[in-house]
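Why does residue order matter? Because the sequence determines the fold. Keep that principle in mind as you read this record.
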Amino acid sequence: MAAPQLKHTVERDRQALGGWLALALVVLWFIAAVAMFASAGPNEDFVDEPVRILYALLMLPVGIFLCFGFFTLEPNEARVLMLFGAYKGTVRHSGFHWANPLYARSRGAAPKSAPVPLAKRLTEGATQPKLKTKLSLRVHNFNSPTLKVNDKRGNPVEIAAVVVWRVDNTAQAVFDVEDYESYVQVQAESAIRSIASLYAYDHGEEHEVTLRGGGDEVSHELAKELGVRLAKAGVVVDEARLTHLAYAPEIAPAMLRRQQAEAVIAARKTIVLGAVSMVEMALNELERKDVVKLDEERKAAMVSNLLVVLCSDHATQPVVNTGSLYT
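Structure:
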């Protein structure tokens, strides 16, 4: 039997009543209640007096209840409107607004598995904080902790990344995942581990992208992987880049010695290639200018001496031969 597919919640734009207009209406409501209570004095119609007092007393709590419908939104903020568990729409326009006071102000407590920041623990106590219906649409940065993973060759490496993300679909962020902020953190760490296992740290095959050398391509693949994972939460990834990359401490000394050996070999290779070119140039110049005639044995001796001088790590000490080469 196939597993049921999760239906993505579709965001609906909702226009709230202007807060200043609603404030004026609420003020007029209180004025009417006070006026009705004041007009309930002695008059010819004694029957209407208790009714007016009752109406005035009922209008006061209704007016106070209406005051709970006011809310403000800053730029790049949105509020999800929920009435008894039903999604009614999202208000995205900044400013002073009024909506039905029965709309929920929170969407339940945060899951216990979600991390609680220290500031919230100090201000809200030991209980889990409430998840607000007001969401921030601003750009967020998530700095992942340093993770120890195995690269493509099985070498343990330490890796960390920064993910730049923002909420794009408020309905999906609220209703399709438990807590979208915790979801972003967990999926970001999972994507970093997945991407790190696809590339070697360095010294890959010919034209192979590595973690150390292919920064732009690795970052692009990481952002692409995160975009797929976070799409169901209504989150868009703007950028993702590696901030820390190193061998794990247990193999770092061995890898450092390998890098040093490879650097020495590369330097020696360059020195030898240069020395051979210089010896060839010297022999060609001597032959072209006819400075001296050298047989094969003398050429071999000259090549040997020049290579020693050019490839030696230390300054060479000349030896003056006072006899003949053949004695």
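The longest strand covers residues 235-247.
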